[in-house]
Structure formats: structure tokens, C-alpha cells
Design goal:
Elements: H1 6-18, H2 22-27, H3 30-63, H4 83-100, H5 103-111
């Protein structure tokens, strides 16, 4: 019986989940509809997996022993710096500073609404 109403079922899915109008839905090809539905499925699975992991981490952190560090949900993956790129960037910075001075540093602070540190100021 559902096969008789498959077009209506698919249209209802697109209206409810994506807010499509009938015209927008009908403008999609069968292949586009299939890819959209597959992407939605992938997103739903990813969101569910992330929620599961978040709950597991939260429960584990609540149940951890006193003094033990909490487990983080997200782990930062730090990549080692490419020394050649860093060296070239430092050369460019030094050339700009010789040519223009250090005004570029003040521009960065100003663009971010920060006050540049003064010499002799202690940070802490």
C-alpha cells in the first residue's frame, strides 16, 4: 500500500525536514533526491553518534575518581609545523619590518579592538 503513495511520502519527507515547497521538490531530479536523503541520513547518524559519545564522556566524568582529570569530548590534533614554511614566513616578516617597521602589529591589535602592550608592562 505504501508503494501507491511513495511520491507523496517522499514529498512529505522533504516538506517536514527541509521546508521544500511542491515546486522546489518537483524541480529536483530523482538522483538529487536520493543524494539529499542519503546526506540527511549520514547527518542523522553522525549527530546520534556524537550525542552518544557526549553522554558517555559526561557519565564517565561524573563517575570518575576524585582528583582524576575529566575526559574531554574533543581532542585537539596538533600537527608538527613545517619548518620550511615557518622559515619562509619569518623571512617575509623580517623583510616587512625592515621596510615598514612594526606598524602591522599595531594594525592587528587595532582591528581586533585590543590595546597593544606597552614595553615594561607585566602580563599576568
Amino acid at each position: 500500500m505504501a508503494k501507491d503513495y511513495q511520491k507523496e511520502i517522499d514529498f512529505a519527507f522533504f516538506v517536514v525536514n527541509f521546508g521544500f515547497s511542491r515546486g522546489e521538490y518537483e524541480a529536483l531530479t530523482y538522483t538529487e533526491r536520493a543524494f539529499i536523503m542519503k546526506s540527511y541520513e549520514d547527518k542523522l547518524v553522525g549527530d546520534s553518534t556524537m550525542l552518544q559519545k557526549a553522554v558517555e564522556v559526561a557519565v564517565g566524568n561524573v563517575m570518575r575518581k576524585k582528583g582524576k582529570r575529566p575526559v574531554q569530548l574533543w581532542q585537539k590534533q596538533q600537527q608538527p609545523a613545517n619548518r620550511e614554511i615557518v622559515r619562509r614566513n619569518m623571512q617575509i616578516i623580517e623583510e616587512i619590518e625592515v621596510r615598514d617597521g612594526k606598524s602591522w602589529v599595531h594594525k592587528i591589535y587595532q582591528a581586533n579592538g585590543l590595546k597593544p602592550p606597552q614595553r615594561g608592562e607585566k602580563h599576568g
